[in-house]
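WARN no homologs supplied; continuing
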Amino acid sequence: MKSQLQWEVPLLLTFFSTMLFATPVVAQPAQAGFGFNGAVSGFPTGAVSVTGGGAYDLGPPSFVHAAGGFSCLADVGQGPLSNSINPNDPGPCLAGQGVRWDTAELLTQTTFKCTGAAGERLKTANTGDTTAVLQADFYRAGDANDESFTAQMIVSATDIADDIPGLQNLWVQGVGCGTAIVHFSNKQK
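OK structure emitted
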């Protein structure tokens, strides 16, 4: 009996210690790639078309590399896109303006509203396998590498606002929510 325990105990310890080390690797967040094309509105003024994609990883260390095109479809009168941070190109994003956007930072989460209405419930979005919460820089024509605006964005494969009718899977801070064609692909580390 003692000789059987001498080899069973080390075998069990080896098995369980292997499981302990393997679990964190499997439980880590996935690396994700995404692409999308859609438009947002809902606040009192403004509408924006946004398209693009990229890749991100929550890490540690985290990284994001994403960019695309954008255009103001209607003048934006509130929020970050209503006041340029570029001193050489002041003013809001007007209909027909906008060229591109790129990512300044991957955010773990943000709170948001789709309409800005006083009675609208504040919602939370978290970056995960099928949702990217981004801090983005937006550029108008002629501003070269000097961003015109900076605002948060949410891109999701699923509905981010179940209290709003229809599918809301794209959001731009101060403009609102909308529906986009979205695709995510994930790779476990």
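The helical segments are 2-27.
OK
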